[in-house]
Each structure stands twice: as structure tokens, then as C-alpha cells.
Amino acid sequence: MAAAATPGVAEQTPGVAEQTPGAAPQGAVPFDLSQAPNIEGFSPLPKARDETFKEKFARKTKENPFVPIGCLGTAGALIYGLRAFHQGKTRQSQLLMRGRIFAQGFTVVAIIVGVFATALKPKPSPP
């Protein structure tokens, strides 16, 4: 009569060390740092060309031209308002400061519209 195996006890072969599930075998390196990792379902895009400040500014201005216009309006109203204040023209200074607030509001709205327009724009599919 053969002895029945006890349930729940795993049989071990002699000479093989017990390993925890998911652990790397003894002597194996878990990651090969000389190569990029291979992630299933992920294909990296080629690195985009670095653009200069001038190129990026031109591209962003073409994408949303109202932001630089609003910034220039804000700066212009601020400079002329401060100049009028320095010259003692309080009424003109007040009007220019109100114009600056309007220009700042215009710029903020232009930024928000640009963000939404960019988010809603369909992304180009990779080749």
C-alpha cells in the first residue's frame, strides 16, 4: 500500500533551493540597464527635435495669436499708465489702469480658449 501525499505540502526535488514566486533566479540580473526596457503594448515615439526659443515663440504665436496681442496691450497700458501717473495726470492714469485690467482679462480668456482648442484638437496618429 502506497502512502498518500499530504494535501497542501509541495514536493521538493533534492538540491533545488526554494524560491519565492516572482523573484529572479539566483545569479540572474533583474534588469539589463544597457538596453531600454521592452514594455508590451508601448511603442516610443522618436525624440522630437529640440526647437530654439525663437522657433517655439513663432509656433505658439501662430497657434494662438491673441495671447501675445493681449500681453502687448497689458504692457502698453501699464507703461503709459505709470507714465501718466508720474506726470500727475490722475484721470488718464486711472483710465489706463482700467484698460490694463481689461487687457489682462482678454489675455487670460485667450489662454483658456487656446488650452481648450488644443485639448479638443485630434491628435495625429503615429505612423
TrEMBL record:
The keyword Disulfide bond does not apply. InterPro entries: Hypoxia_induced_domain, RCF1. Residues 1-31 are annotated as: Disordered. GO terms for biological process: mitochondrial respirasome assembly. The chain crosses the membrane at residues 66-85, 101-120. The keyword Repeat does not apply. Residues 38-127 form the HIG1 domain. Signal peptide: none annotated. It is found in: Mitochondrion membrane. Keywords: Membrane, Transmembrane, Transmembrane helix. GO terms for cellular component: mitochondrial membrane. It comes from the Eukaryota. This is HIG1 hypoxia inducible domain family, member 2A. The gene is HIGD2A.
